[in-house]
Amino acid sequence: MAYYHIKNTIVEEGSKKSPMSRKIMGRIPHTSLAKPSSSISPDSMGKDTLHLLSYKGEFLKPCPGTKEYICCGYQILNVATNCPLDCSYCILQSYFLHQPYLRIHVNLEENLGAILTFIDRDPEQIVRVGTGEFADSLALDPLTHWTDILMRPFSKRKNAVLEFKTKTNQIDGLISSPYRDRIIVSWSLNSPLISATEEKGAATLKQRLEAARRCQAEGFVVSFHFDPLIPHKGWREGYLKTIDLMDRYLNPKGIIWISMGSLRFMPDLKPIIRKRHPGTSILDGEFITGLDGKARYFKPIRIELYQFMRRNLEKWYSDLGLYLCMESDEIWGKSMGWSPQDSKGLKGFLDDRVVRIFK
Ligand code: SF4
Q1: Which end of the chain is less packed: N or C, by CB atoms within 10 Å?
Q2: Pocket of ligand 1 contains residue 227 by CB under 6 Å
């Protein structure tokens, strides 16, 4: 997959001289310099325009979980916001409704010292970091070279891991790096139908798994995220097909964890999905409002989804580090047969896997 077509680039005044801005500009063959426009339609979200800017907030922040559900204690490294892919269910559509464009934080290197100081402050504390929450971790890597900037410092630390989460097969930056330790390459997966119809611009399932196989062969630890699970027509056969493909392409022993979550969204996302993705079928189900105000499937549906996935993934291999994203103790117990009880327990479970897999 070639990297996405960038039509325009906006460079914020104070960021013109930044080394990262210059390098990125040098890597874009055809783009015109533009000014921010007040007339960007929320429908386009400015996904063909790169906006290079200095980020004023904190680069490393805990994942915004809610106290009502069990959260994994992940830290988000905020390297960019927005994404050139266009999944119908993407929460960024409402998060960044008023912040269009592919916003790249070009002062990342200047802030790396503070990020590492935070990690180094307690060598006993494991810090799991990811760049794939407000953007796809690798979609823009051919332009930004995040892999170049981040892999070395993370590889040198024994109490941290860095997870690159993607729906692309853009792994050249990873493969050409000499660093492997403490790096996790991660793919979001779904059924073949949901992948093909609801994840616009993403690599096909087969391409994602081919990329994962290559990364395993190159010595990387990998992980997967079945999120959002969506009960659609033929979902059981669909998800089984994906698990079959995983079996064909991957060595399960090299998987550090697989998360599962079901579709959930704040109410303001619904009209945006309807408008931006008129052909979508993801809103066809029935939803209730969860304790965090998000719409989600009824409990029995969520439990059935997770039980089905767990049963079939564990048939493939029994030690995959399966966990649920943002679910309650009750749902954990009923669908997984055990529960970490709270966020501290889940953090401990995942930290133990880090220690075990990266011995
Ligand atoms: S890949 Fe992730 S960040 Fe990008 S559009 Fe899809 S859900 Fe959103």
Answers
A1: C
A2: no
The CA distance from 290 to 293, in Å, is 5
Which residue range(s) make up the domain with 217? Answer: 55-357
| Within-domain flag for 245 | yes
| Distance from the alpha carbon of residue 25 to the mean position of ligand 1, in angstroms | 24
44 and 96 in contact (C-beta within 8 Å)? no
8 assigned to some structural domain: no
How many whole angstroms from 305 Cα to the centroid of ligand 1?
22
For the chain, what is the radius of gyration of the CA atoms? 20
Give the pLDDT band (50/70/90) at residue 98: confident
Residue 285 confidence class, pLDDT cut points 50, 70, 90:
confident
Total domain count, the chain: 1
pLDDT tens figures, 174-216: 999 999 999 999 999 999 999 999 999 999 999 999 999 999 9
Q: How many angstroms does the Cα of residue 167 sit away from the middle of ligand 1? A: 8
CATH of the domain at 214: 3.80.30.30
For residue 12, is it within any domain?
no
Contact yes or no for 331/299 (Cβ under 8 A):
yes
What are φ and ψ of residue 157, in 5° steps?
A: -110, 135
pTM: 0.96
Residue 325 DSSP symbol: S
Q: Is 83 in the pocket of ligand 1 (CB under 6 A)?
A: yes
- Measured in Å, residue 133 CA sits from the centre of ligand 1 at 8
> What whole-number percentage of the chain has pLDDT above 90?
86
Query: Is there an atom of ligand 1 within 6 Å of 92 CB?
Result: yes
